[in-house]
């Protein structure tokens, strides 16, 4: 995860975002995983993916911008072949050609400019290796960004405007076609982009609120406190009215040809 001015907290995220972890593991399983080799987890969150990959037999290098997430991942994976480091994805550093799998889920849309991050991840993929990348707001630029624009309009309402001055809505749109071109320029063969279904809490509003508090609106929740759910409810109502609930989640799988 990467976002300026906000420290992601591991425990609320872990408790509320099992759906994001499931989506990451599903994408990795579908892409096909080796039984050994090195695995890079960029934006590792609270460590569930790193743990699962290590238990499979992979040697994992995990990183996250959040000290809380790094500590949680380190604790979860203490007895496993997992190395955890604090890194800002905007200045990501990975050894070139070192990994059988490079993975990042639900991080890229927090970056204003993902080019360095995407190129670094691509260059880290070993010959015959795979990159698996999932994120939100991967729709074409021409389609606009109704979800972000609607949320910003709610945040600008009188009840919230002054309180959210230091916690603006910060999602960024990165068309999957543009990201795919970056990967291809680094020598990867990119599979057709696939949409990823969103997890809306299976009709459980409390579960949905908890997930949004811990991830999408984590920065706003720190400022709004007990009023966070009222803000979330206004956002959901506005998104529904605007027909803008779709986060345009995408999954990109790319492979470096073997030598």
From TrEMBL:
<dbReference type="Pfam" id="PF08241">
    <property type="entry name" value="Methyltransf_11"/>
</dbReference>
<protein>
    <submittedName>
        <fullName>SAM-dependent methyltransferase</fullName>
    </submittedName>
</protein>
<keyword id="KW-0808">Transferase</keyword>
<dbReference type="InterPro" id="IPR029063">
    <property type="entry name" value="SAM-dependent_MTases_sf"/>
</dbReference>
<dbReference type="GO" id="GO:0032259">
    <property type="term" value="P:methylation"/>
</dbReference>
<keyword id="KW-0489">Methyltransferase</keyword>
<dbReference type="InterPro" id="IPR013216">
    <property type="entry name" value="Methyltransf_11"/>
</dbReference>
<dbReference type="GO" id="GO:0008757">
    <property type="term" value="F:S-adenosylmethionine-dependent methyltransferase activity"/>
</dbReference>
<feature type="domain" description="Methyltransferase type 11">
    <location>
        <begin position="41"/>
        <end position="133"/>
    </location>
</feature>
């Amino acid at each position: 995860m990467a976002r300026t001015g906000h420290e992601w907290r591991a425990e609320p995220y872990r408790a509320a975002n099992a759906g994001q972890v499931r989506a990451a593991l599903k994408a990795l399983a579908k892409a096909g995983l080796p039984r050994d080799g090195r695995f890079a987890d960029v934006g590792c969150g609270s460590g569930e993916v790193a743990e699962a990959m290590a238990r499979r037999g992979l040697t994992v290098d995990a990183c996250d911008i959040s000290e809380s997430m790094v500590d949680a991942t380190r604790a979860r994976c203490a007895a496993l072949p997992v190395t955890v480091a604090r890194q800002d994805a905007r200045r990501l550093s990975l050894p070139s050609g070192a990994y059988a799998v490079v993975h990042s889920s639900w991080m890229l849309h927090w970056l204003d400019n993902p080019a360095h991050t995407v190129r670094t991840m691509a260059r880290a993929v070993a010959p015959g290796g795979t990159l698996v990348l999932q994120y939100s707001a991967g729709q074409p630029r021409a389609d606009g960004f109704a979800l972000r624009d609607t949320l910003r309009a709610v945040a600008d309402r009188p009840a919230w405007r002054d309180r959210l001055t230091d916690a603006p809505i910060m999602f960024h749109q990165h068309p999957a076609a543009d990201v795919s071109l970056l990967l291809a320029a680094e020598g990867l063969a990119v599979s057709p982009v696939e949409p990823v279904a969103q997890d809306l809490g299976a009709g459980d509003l409390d579960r949905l609120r908890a997930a949004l508090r811990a991830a999408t609106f984590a920065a706003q929740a720190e400022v709004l406190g007990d009023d966070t759910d009222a803000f979330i409810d206004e956002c959901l109502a506005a998104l529904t009215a605007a027909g803008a609930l779709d986060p345009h989640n995408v999954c990109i799988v790319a492979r470096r040809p073997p030598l």
